[in-house]
Amino acid sequence: MLSHSQIIKLNKWAKNVNGRIVFRFKKYPYALVLDGVIHAEDFEGKAVSWSQAFGPQVPSDVLLSYKLKEIEIRMPGKELVFKTFKEFKEFFAKVLEA
Question: What pTM was computed for the model?
């Protein structure tokens, strides 16, 4: 899926462009969010404690443990939704390789 270093790069990118990357999971009420701060949100977009949402798992383990529903990218003037990691990685290839 994504390594720890790739997640850090994506989080930095989100902060630099004033954007958000939201990983939503099937049949799970919490999302992993990158927007300059790596955190968890509920289905309404409210921040929740990491331990409540994902317990002791690190972000890369969360992405391996839950089945992906979608990845939502929001940045000023643009919103994208990816259904697979493959599409997402193709879009962010340059960011992930940097």
Answer: 0.94
